[in-house]
Amino acid sequence: MTLLENLAKALAGGSIEIVDLTHTLDPDFPVIVLPPEFGQCARFRMEEVSHYDHRGPAWKWHNISMSEHTGTHFDAPSHWVSGRDVANGSVDEIPAGNLMAPAVVIDCSAGAAANDDFELTRDVLAEWEDVHGRIPEGCWVLMRTDWSHRSGAAYLNMRDDGPHSPGPTPDAIRFLVDERNILGFGTETIGTDAGQGSHYTPPYPAHYYLHGAGKYGLQCLCNLDRLPATGAMLVTPPLKIRNGTGSPLRVLALKET
Amino acid sequence: MSEPIAPPGKKNPQRRTDVPQTPPQQRSRAALGLAAAAAEGRFMLQVCGDCGAVQYPPRDACSRCLSINLQWQDVSPGGRLVAETRVRATTDLYFRKQMPVRVGTVKLDVGPSVICHVHGDVGDGADVRMAIKLDRAGQGVMMALPVKETPFMEDDPRLREMSCTPRHRRVLVTDARNPNAPAIVSALAAAGAEKIFVGLSEDWRPNRHNDDIMAVPGVEMLPLDVTDSKSVEELAAELGGKTDILVNNARYVRPGGLMARNDTVFAQNEMDVNYLGLMRLAQAFGPAMCARTADGTNAAVAWVNILSAYAISNSPDYGCFSASNAAALSLSQNMRADFRTSGLRVLNVFVGPTDDDWHQELPPPKVPANTLARSLVQGLVDGLEDVYCGDVAKDMIERFRASPKIQEREMTGFRS
Amino acid sequence: MSRTRLGYEGVAIVSPATIPYQRFSIETAHWWIARALKESLDQAGLGPAEIDGFAVSSFTLFPDTAVGLTQHLGLCPRWLDHIPMGGASGIVALRRAARAVQAGDADIVACVAGDTNHIDSFRNLLSSFSRFSQDAAYPYGFGGPNANFALLMDRYMKDYGATREDFGRICVAQRQNALRNPNALMKKPLTLQQYLDARPISDPIALFDCVMPCAGSEAFLVMTVEEAQRRDLPFAVIAGTIERHNAYADDPVQFRGGWAMDIDELYHMADCAPSDIDLLQTYDDYPVISMMQFEDLGFCDKGEGSRFVQDRDLTIEGDFPHNTSGGQLSAGQAGAAGGYIGLVEAIRQVTAAAGPTQVPDASRAMVSGFGVINYDRGVCSGAAIIEGAKA
Hints:
- Chain B has 416 residues and is of the alpha/beta class.
- Helices cover 31% and strands 21% of the residues of chain B.
- The mean pLDDT of chain B is 96.
């Protein structure tokens, strides 16, 4: 049997499971909120065009609209100013070979449960590597916080001093980019950065370092608690939008059962 | 005094809801001047520009000197009730449900006699204060009122038909996030609204006005996002049948004219909230409200839009916002046409720059939320169609009436 | 100072025709008008080709006018008039026709009024009656003429102390007269108590102050006296006649009609006084208007109407025979034919052709018309004194 025949058999037999890491696109799903004088992330909207009725007797369809960064979505390098000149930095230019890759999962759920502003530090990464081994090159690093179990106001967790949600420190991200050469970094929160990420130097370090180095981001993921620390494989093809800086997408994980 | 109207209580679900009817709609073009006067609560009649004779009923030529130079002018509303009747039989379907209707002849101090509705507190042969009111057909009609306020005066059944008072009614205010929401909700409550529903969009992010709104008795907050058709439809499905007054205070405003922006992003938001939001609300809530305009004490009665005075003529500093409000103004006229047969009134409250975050750069005068709320509620009580709230709005409409083109030249020419 | 008007010598009124009224009719105004015209022509032994003048009044002829009727009815007149003056139509048609005949513009003028009454006719008629009514009367309760007359009746009662009993006397007397008119729609006696107890319609107007709208038509012919004599037709002549429109426009509420402006001239033309009038046919869409006519036509002073009806007996056999066929109040109001009913009855009276309603020895009658509540009052008024000819 070929490799792919083996894969098909494993899928059919259930020894490989596909886990959906995607939230449903829904007008009520929170999006990032910027200061109001800035343009905002467009919410997901759906307008009915016809419903097997006088507007289209045999068919139903909708017009949908949203931002590139609405719902479970992919960030391309060109999303951030640090990545503006990166080669193949927009979603349409990303090599197809980069759209399937292995993933490791850093379980920060206990820390995030105790502290809304939990930081993924270099120490946390070191501890993880002590247990699971070196983070391999070219993989996705997924930060599990169980934040996806939250909804509504608790998910955005906005206070007068801004949103509060866990995220990586600048050091941790630099480590992953410079010393582990990962493919990208994914979170369960609204961004790859912490809610208070604007107060780091540089502000929004995950965005800054990842995209400056041509790495990718995934956010608003769910079901990370169903993935193993190592050994999962992610399928992450964004829509092929010319010069797009990101895209909502369906993120699938393959794991061995 | 008038007999105070009792709160309506729960509706008998076994009774067929009365079918909406309106009083006679048909008028000559000249008589539409009464509707125009009533829309703003003014007492205006045609006055001959040549001989000064005051005319009534409205004419096309002076009945004293045959001049065709007849101008609508504000005139003294004083008069005396010289004859009266109570009409107890009619072939008109609207008035059949209103019987008996007190009707009188008033000799106006300015000359003509008018047949008019007569408030119940006007004494036999008494002096009266005349008003031109919009009836349920949206036409201007004469009504004789007591010279001085009387207790529970607004509960007179005829006056209540002319009014859109919030008293004993259920009101939906669409946007809890607008800084004016607490003031509007408070003013509605003070005017006797039985229940005030307030729409809150995106409950996943905080709203700094929630505490002030919820402090008002009779308020209930419900999810509503005017940019989301599904959200609007869902709330209309739940609430459309008990929305007696809808106050659309949803507004998206950002400074900047056409060339100050390089994109259409804010403009799309402005259109989505200010224009399409109104459209979504009208399509979702309009049918249910129009079906309930004859539903007793708390029949559906009015729809309120808060429009920028710059809907009248573009203010380049807020050029794109102005354009979205011009679109909303045009749509409100479409609403009036579509709601006409039901008698559901569309009240447009025009307001100049409001005293909020998005008008910080502008010098006074700016309209405080309390002033806007007061004007809005008074417009409902008086049954108006057009309210110009604050000095800027009044200035805008006055200059528009003098000459739209000169106004445009002023608005577009003197900016530093 | 206006010139003295010419008299109406040489003009004869003949062939009074009334088509019995019906409460509702499935027929059209054209049908009703044709019947009255034929009835009148039959009395005179004439065919339609022999009339050369034609005057018509009708509210329900739309979209036709007198013009359409010429073709519809096969007439070829050289003089044609359409008179939209409601309750004044009969007097005005008579005046116009008489002058046409005097001047030789026409030899025989047929004057006809008729209307149908479908189930919804009255409502439709009201809703398109006049611009001022549409703009400034109907939006106030849509009480129609009832409300208008209620207002002026209210004022009249307050100013002159008239009571509902006084108006009731007019109605009760007319009902007595109507009981002798086999064609009257009202066939039951009416007592004063019944009048007072009636269902209120628009205070102070109650049910028996109101006419009953119906279908019907009326007609008469105007020709030269020579022509009438040649044909051996009983005829009446015009002793005098007046009309006036929009009189006393500044009165805040109508308490008098245009008659008052011209009444002295009317008596002067007819060379008689009120006491010489044998019977009076007023326009009686409401009793208050009849009472005003007693005053404005000189039978009593202004404000004395109530005393007058207390003192006089208004029945056929009374000392002041009034609306001898029962008038519109008891015979019915057949639209524009209501502007003819008194005149046609008066022609019969002075030509001794009134049959059961005949006033003994009636030789001089006054007829008055009042029409078109254009806004808050009747605008058109007219009156005529006619006399039976000694053939």
